[in-house]
Design brief:
The protein is mostly helical. It is built from 52 helices and 14 strands.
Length: about 1050
């Protein structure tokens, strides 16, 4: 931080002023040399050395560049002190030289008297006066700067506390006493000089700690994602009478021998997996173990005193894609390791740690490498991982098993996953496996007794029927459960209902006999037991929950309920919050009572959300057979129920009635946007709109009769944004403008091609000034990132955007505020959009971004044997003429793109980048014609001479030609280039022939003869050869002489030599 650097300057100035002030005010003796040992005396030698140090330091301070003008008064004062220091040094040196000429050592009563021998009295008084003025002024300025530094540190600590809590506490404790020194209405009026000196010493060092803290938190934030702890939080806690066997008082007990978890935690063995039937309690068990303090104690026995870092991850199929992905697993584990031991960040992620800008999105390969590095290189720590729900991982289970097995082989790692079906793939001995249904019988017995005995009628039932019969009922439940805890939960719930209905013991036994022992038939039985009056609402609620694909806010079900009476309720919903917290709480309780009544407890409440009782229920409802059954039940007046349209209506109503302006707890990466910044304040609004657009996108892909309703609803939401201000919810016109821009940004990001067809004839829908000012992204960039739901729609959507005034060469970087402003906007956009890929691109034009997304080249001889990661996007762009479309609108083929060769990054023109992509031609051979057509258009517009000149003038690019020489032997590139040249006119070819040595260097000397052999049969006929001869006759003398080559060397009638000469 610049203020910290200025603070250090101020501290140096203060120390100089205090030194000189004491020199003039102190009555102690001044000695000409160090010959005296008097403690009250000062020596000219010492004074000279001190002044020399001050002069050197102040020169260094004042020569630094500071961008902020507010530091000018302090820096001006430092400059004046530097000049006074030079004068004093010159005087003292002169005085010392004068006294050294004498034969005896001289002594003065004070420094003021001493320098009077070589300086006039008025000069001395003027210096003392300046020192006094500077001294009082620097104290005030130092107080103000110190206060600003402290406030900024406090702000940084608050912003990043959630991501680096350990370091936060450490720095906060150090900062607290310093904060007290600068408190007060006028900076630090009561601060003593010695305290200010200490501040100058302590704060720069503390600021460095804070900076390190922020850099660490930057990396942690890039690893974190909103759903990281969501699954953990919704897994129910175990009932108080269960899981006591996991940590028995005596580890030699029989139950520990069955479970074995304690022995594994405290002893050797890397892999211990937990299996069990669906609903047997695996997730609850793994959460209980991972969160239990006994686990850490037992792991310490295994680590023999070394620190053990514990990290847990919970997959879920009922959530967002990242919650069921390998990337989500890696980010979760690495985040939890590094947040507990943040000092590891600079060791395992040095490049990301040094990055003070926007962090690039993580790649799966990078994450896997980091996790392996942590497992391999930890010296003073060990790792223990708990991973729940491998069956819910969306990828190849065998792949994830291999990865986990590899991790568990490290002697510093323990790993405990839970699985249902493919435990054999994980291997391991029988002592390292636990089947939940084998160890929960006692838990089921205790739970069943507790749940039934807690009912008010149970004691009277025991009195009536006798304890033998009630005990027999409990035993039947245990036997029939087969270890499935979810089944027991449902059964006890229904039996308690029977008790409430005054059922006899015979009634309860008959109920139990009728309950299927398997879960899916049990679910069907529960659904069939719903009151016929509620069955349509039950079916609608379950389909509503299923198609949401994640837990929903309870208010969504409140609005869904309204649809039953009024289908178009969302269109008339007022744009203001539900008034009070009490009203919202009361409504939520009422809504859940209704949902619970419809669905018989199959949907349950978790805080402010409603979700499926269990994943097995979600799987059951998601089957095609069950969905069809529910759709039939959901019909009203023979009208089909559309869950997605219902979700869209509810989300619009929910957005209208919710708060839009709740500042998030975390707002940026390194430089945090201010909390009152409307772009950041609208984060809740943007997230709701993103969900809304997801429903609209899926509706649009369905087509059919819902399209008109979708368009009407989206138009209504767009219009409603403007009325929020009128209702007093948002009082800022700028915020309303940003909200509308964000809304339309998400429309585009969702790829709603059919809806956009009704909007894009308007040139104001994507207002250019608003997108440039608030989003710093062209709508074209969003199209390239989030293609329309119909790939065929890509072209006309992009075309319509360009027809409305946007160019593929637009650059929307901030015009004010520099890099800090850019970071603020882009980091805020990452928060509110989650379209992170856009912000990973090198900031440039939409054209450059499209090229970088589709033709990003990473080369080396070994790389061209496998397809690039961009190949799929590249082929899609070719298939739908994306490149040709933008070229038709003036896309600049001479703008620069990135190319990586053997770890080095270079910039080359887009036309050359496109040509070099030929090395991957075997992988997109079906699109050869489209590729060649596009390449021809690029070469027609290319300006090789311009880049050739830049190349010769840029030292950092001097290796590009040599690197290009290595591309797959050059043959594929040369052949494609030759074909394309043969299709150009003479004039178009001429710019490559006479435009410098660019093409020459693409075809290096070692390939010239081969290149010629390739060029000649591919369209270079005799006429062309003669044209080349004439060109060479004009070119060689000047160019050859310039390179120190003899013209005679090229005086030959051999056509091939002419061609080679042409390229030399």
């Amino acid at each position: 931080m610049e203020s910290v650097a200025v603070l250090a300057v101020a501290g140096n100035v203060l120390q100089f002023l205090e030194f000189t002030w004491k020199l003039f005010s102190n009555a102690g003796k001044i000695l000409a040399s160090a010959g005296s040992s008097s403690e009250e005396s000062a020596h000219l030698d010492d004074i000279c050395r001190t002044l020399q140090d001050f002069t050197t330091q102040l020169k260094r301070d004042t020569s630094s560049n500071y961008s902020t003008r507010k530091w000018e008064p302090m820096l001006t004062r430092a400059d004046a002190c530097e000049r006074d220091s030079e004068k004093l040094l010159a005087i003292t040196t002169k005085l010392r030289a004068k006294t050294q000429n004498g034969k005896a050592s001289k002594c003065w009563a004070s420094f003021k008297i001493a320098i009077a021998e070589v300086w006039k009295a008025n000069e001395i008084e003027a210096l003392i006066s300046r020192i006094s003025d500077h001294r009082s002024g620097i104290i005030l300025e130092l107080c103000a700067t110190t206060s600003e530094v402290v406030q900024r540190m406090q702000s940084d600590l608050r912003q990043w506390e959630a991501f680096n809590s350990l370091r936060h506490k450490e720095i906060h404790n150090t900062l607290q006493p310093l904060t007290k020194l600068v408190q007060g209405p006028h900076g630090c009026p009561n601060t003593q000089l010695q305290d200010l000196n200490q501040l100058c010493i302590d704060l720069p060092a503390l600021s460095l700690d804070t900076r390190q803290y922020v850099l660490e938190a930057t990396v942690l934030k890039s690893l974190h994602y909103p759903e990281l702890s969501l699954r953990h939080d919704i897994i129910p806690e175990p009932h108080e009478v269960t899981l006591h066997w996991a940590f028995p008082p005596s580890q030699g007990s029989n139950m520990d021998a069955i479970g074995g978890i304690c022995s594994w935690l405290s002893g050797p063995g890397g892999l211990f997996w937990v299996s069990g039937k669906p609903g047997s309690g695996k997730s609850t068990f793994i959460k209980f173990i991972a969160d239990n303090s006994n686990t850490q104690k037992l792991l310490t026995q295994w680590s023999k005193g070394q620190e053990v870092i514990l990290a847990a991850h919970y997959f879920t199929i009922y959530g967002t894609p990242i919650q069921r992905s390998l990337k989500g697993l890696f980010r979760s584990l690495i985040y939890k390791i590094l947040s507990q031991e943040p000092t590891l960040i600079r060791k395992v992620l040095p490049q990301r740690y040094k990055n003070d800008k926007i962090q690039e999105p993580w790649k799966q390969s990078e994450l896997q490498s980091v996790l392996k590095k942590l497992a391999r290189e930890l010296v003073h720590s060990r790792l223990c991982f708990f991973i729940d729900g491998l069956d819910e991982y969306a990828g190849d289970q065998l792949d994830i098993c291999e990865i986990l097995q590899d991790l568990s082989r490290s002697p510093c790692v323990k790993l405990c996953p839970t699985v249902e079906r493919f435990e054999n793939a994980l291997g391991g001995d029988t002592d390292s496996k636990l089947y939940m249904q084998d160890v929960t019988r006692t838990d089921i017995q205790q739970y069943t007794k507790t749940m039934l005995r807690s009912h008010p009628r149970w004691d009277s039932l025991v009195s009536e029927a006798g304890s033998d019969k009630t005990d027999s009922l409990v035993q039947q439940i245990i036997d029939k459960s087969s270890g499935v805890f979810l089944w027991v939960t449902l059964v006890t719930r229904l039996l308690r209902e029977g008790l409430t209905n005054d059922d006899s013991i015979q009634d309860l036994n008959r109920r139990l006999e009728n309950f299927p022992s398997e879960l899916e038939p049990f679910f069907r039985l529960i659904l069939d037991s719903v009151d016929p009056f509620y069955r349509d609402r039950m079916a609608r609620a379950l389909l509503f929950a299923l198609h949401a694909q994640k837990p929903l806010h309870i208010q969504m079900y409140m609005f869904h309920d309204r649809e039953y009476e009024e289908e178009d309720y969302a269109l008339g919903e007022p744009e203001r919050m539900i008034a009070t917290l009490q009203q919202r709480t009361s409504q939520a309780a009422r809504v859940f009572r209704r949902v619970n009544g419809w669905c018989k407890g199959l949907l349950e409440r978790n805080h402010d959300q409603i979700e499926f009782l269990h994943r097995t229920l979600y799987d059951f409802i998601a089957t095609p057979e069950m969905q069809q059954t529910l759709k039939e039940k959901a019909k009203t007046n023979n009208t089909d129920f559309c869950p997605l349209l219902s979700l869209l209506r509810a989300s619009i109503a929910h957005t209208k009635r919710s708060c839009w302006l709740q500042p998030p707890a975390f707002t940026s990466y390194v430089t945090a946007p201010k909390a009152e910044d409307p772009l950041v304040a609208l984060t809740p609004f943007a997230k709701m709109v993103k969900d809304m657009m997801d429903y609209a996108r899926r509706l649009e892909s369905m087509g059919g009769e819902t399209l008109l309703s979708t368009t009407t609803l989206l138009d209504n939401m767009d219009m409603s944004i403007g009325t929020v201000e009128a209702n007093g919810e948002v009082r800022d016109t700028k915020t309303i403008t940003i909200a509308r821009v964000l809304y339309r940004y998400h429309v585009l990001g969702a790829g709603l091609a059919r809806y956009l067809a009704t909007k894009l004839p308007s040139t104001t829908y994507f207002d250019r000034s608003s997108f440039a000012l608030f989003i710093c992204q062209s709508p074209l960039s969003v199209i390239f990132e989030r293609s329309p739901s119909s790939k065929e729609a890509f072209g006309w959507v992009a075309k319509a955007i360009m027809d409305s005034g946007y160019s593929p060469n637009d650059s929307f970087l901030p015009s004010e505020g520099g890099r800090e402003m850019e970071c603020n906007i882009l980091s805020a956009m990452c928060i509110i959009t989650h379209y992170t890929r856009i912000f990973s691109l090198r900031q440039g034009t939409p054209w450059q971004q499209l090229v970088e997304m589709t033709t990003s080249i990473v080369l080396g001889n070994e790389n061209t044997s496998s397809p690039p990661k961009t190949l799929s996007d590249f082929m899609t762009a070719l298939e739908h003429d994306a490149f040709l479309l933008l070229l038709g609108y003036g896309a600049n083929v001479n703008s620069l793109a990135l190319i990586k060769v053997r770890g080095e990054t270079f910039t080359i023109p887009i036309w050359l980048n496109f040509l070099l992509y030929t090395v991957y031609l075997p992988f997109f051979s079906k699109h050869t014609t489209a590729y060649e057509t596009t390449l021809d258009q690029m070469l027609k517009a290319a300006e090789p001479e311009t880049w050739s000149q830049n190349l010769r003038g840029a030292d950092h690019q001097h290796n590009v030609p040599q690197l290009i020489k290595d591309l797959a032997g050059g043959r594929t590139v040369l052949q494609t280039f030759a074909k394309s040249l043969s299709r150009l006119t003479r004039v178009e070819r001429g710019k490559f022939a006479g435009g410098g040595d660019l093409v020459v260097r693409i075809l290096p000397e070692s390939l010239n003869k081969e290149a010629f052999a390739l060029l000649e049969p591919l369209g270079l006929n005799v006429v062309m050869v003669e044209e080349l001869r004439r060109d060479c006759e004009n070119m060689i003398p000047a160019r050859g002489a310039k390179r120190g080559l003899s013209v005679a060397k090229f005086a030959t009638d051999d056509v091939r030599d002419w061609k080679i000469a042409k390229r030399l």
